Each structure stands twice: as structure tokens, then as C-alpha cells.
Amino acid sequence: MSQVPFTEEEVKSFSSGLGVQVPDGCIIVGNSSGAGACVALSGHATISNAGVITIPSANGLSDVTSAGMETSSTNAGAISVTKQITLITSAGAESRTLAAPAAAGQRKLIFFKTDGGDVTLAGTNIYGQTSATATFNDAGDVLELFSFDAVKWSVIGGSGVAFA
Predict the structure, then answer these.
(1) What is the DSSP string of 4-54?
(2) N or C terminus: which one in the chain shows less Cβ crowding within 10 Å?
(3) Strand 119-123 and strand 94-98: pairing?
(4) Cβ partners under 8 Å of residue 58, min gap 6
(5) What's the Cα-to-Cα distance from 3 to each of 8, 25, 66, 102, 132, rounded to whole Å?
(6) What pLDDT score does 12 carry?
(7) Who wins on pLDDT, 43 or 99?
(8) CA torsion through residues 52, 57, 58, 61, sign
(9) Which residues pair with 38 in a beta bridge?
(10) Cα torsion for 154, 88, 97, 151, to the nearest 10°?
């Protein structure tokens, strides 16, 4: 099934022709009969009238909006310990550093988005690793860390990343 983009004016015209009123913060969700209903997101997530979905820092969740994400494209650059998600891009063989966590309960996801060459990550204080150097070899490699205390990171998941 292909998607056809509509302009904002076309959507407004269509909605008003159907007599559909969509209150602020709602989305239209279809049921099994194909009828749509206005519903608000439930749980921790909210949606703005600009279409921005926010998952707030609460109950072990971190801010995963664009404010909680960074792109790291600078060789020998430091990866943020306060941003939950880091997307790495490289233009050749490069390195990055990651400091110890700033607080207990932090979750950190590091994703190798653009592979122009291997990236080594020198991490400070990683539990269970004889070496704190991780290598991202291919686009799609990912490392997930969690801080159970404000002292060290723990590896809780990943794919394609090798510690040496």
C-alpha cells in the first residue's frame, strides 16, 4: 500500500467536510470497522498539536525527544552522558570518549548510524569489561548502557560492538 502525501489545507478541507473535530493533543485511530475516533495517547507519552511525541523523564524513562538525542560526528569528540541517545557518524577511522554516568538510573543508547570507518569508544568505568574500549565496525552496531549507580556504566545490550 503506497502512501499519498496530503497538504495541510487538503487535510483541513477533508476533515471539515466530514464534520470531524480533532481536539488538541488527540490523534485519529481507526477501529476494526474502519471508523475513526479521536483518542489521546495513554501512559507516559503525549503528543502536541505539532505532532511531536514526548516521553518524559519519569519512572525509569528518559527524554527521547530530539532534546534527548545527539549526533556525534567529531573525531576524538566526547559523547554526552546527559543525552539518552547518541547517533555516531564517521568519515574514517575515528574515536570517541564516554565519561562515567552523571547519576544513577541513566540509560544510554549509542547507535552507529553512518559508517565511513570504524569508531572506537573509550568508556570510563564500565562494569565487567577488562578493557573499556568498544569498537563499532558497521552501520547498525549498537551499544546499550545503564547506570545502576553514579559511578559506572553496565552493558545491558548491544549488537556488533566488540570490547577489546
Answers:
(1) ----HHHHHHHHHHHT----TTEEEEE-TTS-EEEEE--TT-EE-TT--EE
(2) N
(3) parallel
(4) 44
(5) 15, 24, 25, 43, 45
(6) 64
(7) 99
(8) positive
(9) 28
(10) -30
Instruction: Extract the C-alpha cell encoding 139.
Output: 552501520
Grid coordinates representing 61 are 524513562
CB 54 within 8 A of CB 63: yes
Q: Comparing 58 with 21, which gets the higher pLDDT?
A: 21
Q: 3-state class of 66 per DSSP?
A: helix
**Cell matching residue 41:** 495517547
Q: Count CB atoms within 10 A of the CB of residue 122.
A: 17
